[in-house]
Amino acid sequence: MSADEIKSLDEFIPFLEAYPDYDLSTLPSWVADDIENAKVYGNKKRGVIMPDGQKYHLDNKLNDMNGRDWTFFINSVFSTHYPTRGKEGYAHEIRKIHPTPKPPQLMRDLICFFTKHGEIVFDSFMGVGGTLIGASLANRRALGIDLNPEYIDAYKRAASELNLGEQSTICGDCIEILERKKDIEEFLKEDKISLMLIDPPYGNMMSREKTGGDISVYGKNSTPFTESEKDLGNMDKDSFLAALKKSVELTLPFIKTRGYIVVFIKDLQPHKKDVNLLHADVINKLNEIRNLYYKGMKIWSDESTKLYPYGYPFCFVANQIHQYILVFRKEK
Fold it and tell me: DSSP letter string over 80-107?
């Protein structure tokens, strides 16, 4: 709606006049808290406008966002430089035992787009709990699984340090846990998962001996997430893709219809004639799953990544500071 179309809020109908019996608990807090000043517009009276110009649509079943924030989020490319110290580090000094911890702020923003207040987020490769902390920051419930008890313990210590309520966690192989079903059903009760948000360890990247600039980051020795053969991070690419697909297939029955699965992935470096476009391989593999459809991607540029002169002075080798955030949706 343009500025010319919105000449005065007096031209619109007060929300409580249009919907005197509306269940206000279903509205975003930023609408409900000022409902006496909210007004509706449009032929079907489904648009809501607040005194400050923020708009919400009553048919928005996905999230609690206003139109402006929605539009900003769907930009396909974005850059961040999250700090690792102080309040905005979100206990990074505890979580850094993981080689690649995800910033809780980033996970919070993803969760806020793909869920509503109080809905359930699931992370089957939780690591040190970036997704779970993000869920707490967004006032969502969450369940996380990880093979490594030290990572789960680090998450719990970080949650305590941040004075956040501890989300539910299970230690073990996610495929075995999902096949067993009991633990997931006990957590969900009669509810469903709205968002599966995962950053899976990729085809033995961390379990290889390091070379070049990676030595400065991780040291020369391999730094696997765990020593387990069940760890996706210790598998070759084909085995990794098969295990990832199985973990998603097993989760799908617990996800609500039109719920989302969001996957972080980073490409491997090309090797001879193998282009190693891992994000494309993941898209194609997960798209094989019945009722799961690829919807697009966001490309995240992590500007905090250190740069190294890979290939110097002989050949081009990219400093990969970006990751793909792949978006899938469960359909009927």
Answer: E---SSSGGG-SHHHHTTSSSPPPHHHH
Output DSSP code: residue 76.
Answer: S
Give how far the C-alpha of residue 325 lies from the chain's centroid of Cα atoms, to the nearest Å.
8
Q: How many CB atoms lie within 10 A of CB 229?
A: 9
| Full DSSP string of 183-210 | HHHHHHTT--EEEEEE-PPPTTSTTSPP
Looking at residue 226, its pLDDT comes to: 85
Q: Tell which residue, 330, 332, 310, has the closest CA to residue 320.
A: 310
Q: Alpha helix (H) ranges present in the chain?
A: 15-18, 29-32, 67-73, 92-95, 104-114, 130-137, 149-161, 174-180, 182-188, 214-218, 237-251, 278-286
Asked if 194 and 115 touch (Cβ cutoff 8 Å), the reply is yes
Residues 6+ apart with CB under 8 A from 227: 234
Closest CA relative to residue 253, chosen from 178, 187, 316:
178
| Residue 146, beta-bridge partner list | 171
Here the tokens at position 13 are: 């109908």
Q: What is the mean pLDDT of each run of 10 residues along the chain (332 residues)?
A: 49 94 97 97 94 96 97 98 95 96 98 98 98 98 98 98 97 98 97 98 60 52 76 94 98 98 96 96 98 98 94 95 98 93
The whole-number pLDDT of residue 219 equals 52
**What pTM was computed for the model?**
0.91
Taken in order of first residue, the domains within the chain and their CATH numbers are: 9-59 (no CATH), 80-330 (3.40.50.150)
Q: Whole-angstrom Cα distance, residue 43 to residue 58?
A: 13
Predicted confidence at residue 207, as pLDDT, reads 47
What whole-number distance in Å separates Cα of residue 73 and Cα of residue 82?
17
What pLDDT does residue 216 have? 53
